[in-house]
Amino acid sequence: MGRLALLVCLFLFIAVVVPAKATEAATGQLEPRELQLPTQPGRRKNWLGTRSHPQDLPILVMAGHADSQRLRGSGTPGEAVGIYGARPMDPAITDELYWNLLTAQKIVQLGRERGLNIRYYDPGLRTLPNSNDPRSNWSVGYAHAEQGGYAVEIHYDAHSPHGGGAGVIPAVRFEFSRLDEALSEEFGGYPYDYRGMLGAPRRGISILEIANLEGNLERNLRNPRSSEATLKAIAERVVKALQKGLANSTNGSTALQQ
């Protein structure tokens, strides 16, 4: 009898609490939460970034999945949409791309303010079936890396339990970079051969997973009252890591700008 009572109480708890959380996400009216950025690294790192760079290194920042919408690799819908049925931030694209775009732009804006030689690329076309199209992220990033620059795609990982979490997947076309090493110290690092070695790293483009698109982070991004502050806080971490990577290069020793 005691066991039956326990099961009834558990059922009532789920019936009341879970729909309430789902309703909060579905309405899009999310209350501000304490700003908590991810600190847990991704999966085990098996590389060391040692390649140095000049202080005026050209840095190219791109939004992951910017040219693969409605294709297989379109990015995660995020926890709010995928689990709780919230409306997408933009019905034409995945929520991951929506935040990839804004985060990449914020990183470039802040990086320029801090004196980095950094620029943003957006192919403009959201569906490019051929990854070798000269307008694609991979093609532009490959050309940038071949000319000696550093290229990175900004991503958010799938919600738990599907995504591995924050971390950098380093470009493998050249010697591992000190910039990737610095990013891994801040966000964690994935193995260089993650998933058998991904297409972007093979082309000299690093991938930075900011975090799983879920929980407090996603709520803070979606809430108009905290979204800008959240994007800025993420950009601060990325730019500071890039500055550190350049400062640690033997070709330069400029102090980090605060």
Task: Describe the 3D structure.
There is one protein chain. By secondary structure, the protein is an alpha/beta fold. The chain has a single domain (40-247), classed as 3-Layer(aba) Sandwich (Aminopeptidase), CATH 3.40.630. 40% of the residues lie in helices and 11% in strands. The chain contains 8 helices and 5 strands. The protein has helices at 2-27, 78-82, 95-113, 137-146, 178-187, 199-202, 215-222, 227-247, and strands at 59-63, 118-121, 150-157, 167-169, 205-212. The chain has a 5-stranded mixed beta sheet. Residues 4-36 and 252-258 have low confidence and may be disordered.
Helical amount among residues, as a percent range?
25-40%
The tally of beta strands, per DSSP, is: 5
The oligomerization state is single chain
How would you classify the helix and strand content by structural class? alpha/beta
The count of helical stretches stands at 8
CATH architecture: 3-Layer(aba) Sandwich
Give the domain tally.
Answer: 1
The third-level CATH topology is Aminopeptidase
Runs in which pLDDT lies below 50 for 5 or more consecutive residues are 4-36, 252-258
Can you tell me the CATH superfamily? Answer: Zn-dependent exopeptidases
Q: Which value, in Å, is the CA radius of gyration? A: 20 Å
How would you sum up the major sheet? 5 strands, mixed
Strand content: 5-15%
**What coarse outline follows from CA principal-axis ratios?**
globular
Quote the distance from N terminus to C terminus.
64 Å
Topology pattern, helix = H, strand = E: HEHHEHEEHHEHH
- Give the rounded overall mean pLDDT: 83
By CATH reckoning, the class would read Alpha Beta
Going across the biggest sheet, name each strand in turn: 2-1-3-5-4
